[in-house]
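Person: Show me a sequence?

Helper:
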Amino acid sequence: MPKSKITDPIIPFPEEINRNHFASWLSGFVDGEGHFGIRAGYIKNNCQYGCLETFFKITLRDDDSEIIEKIQSYFQCGLVRRRPFQGKIKVINKNDQITFSVNAISDLHNILLPHFDNYPLQAKKAYDYIIWKQAVILLFSALGRKRQSTRDKGFLPKYTKEERNYFHYLHKLMIEQRKYKQNKIKPNIKPLRETCIKPAQLLFDFS
C-alpha cells in the first residue's frame, strides 16, 4: 500500500492547552524524535544536479497520531502522512507509522526557526539545528529570485556559485556532525564559524 497523505484542514490548537508549556515540551520531544534534514544533490562540471532542500519531520508509530496532529496544529503548517507497514523482513519497526513534515522554505524560516530560537534544543540535536538553520536562511534568501533559462537542465542559476558551495559545505558538515550517533562524543561545530566564504557570511549571524 502506498503512502497516504492526510489532506484535511489543520485543526486549531486546543485552547485548553498552554502554548508556552506545549512549546517547551515540544522542543524536548524534538530533541529525541525530530529530524532536521538537508538535501544537496551533487555538483558536476560546475552544474548543480538535484534540488537544494531543507526539511523537518517527526515520525512516530501510527497509534501516536494524536500527538502528531497536535504538533501540526501548534505550528499551523506542514503535512501529515501515514505509512502502512509493508511486511518487509529487514525492518526495525513493524508498526504502521505517521509522519509530520514541513518542506516549504517560508514555513521553515518564518515558523520553525522562531520556535526553536525561542525554545532552544538542549541535547545533541541542538548542533544539528545550528547547521540546518544556516541552510534554511540561505534558501530563504533566494526565495524571490527568478530562474533564468539555461541549456543545462541540471543547473540552478537562482543560486550563486558561492551559495551552492556553501550549501554543500553545510550538507557535508551535517553528515560529519551526525557521527555522534556512532562515536557518542560531543561534535565540534567550530568549522561552521570559521568558514571564510564572504557572500554566505553576509547572510548569517554567528553571534
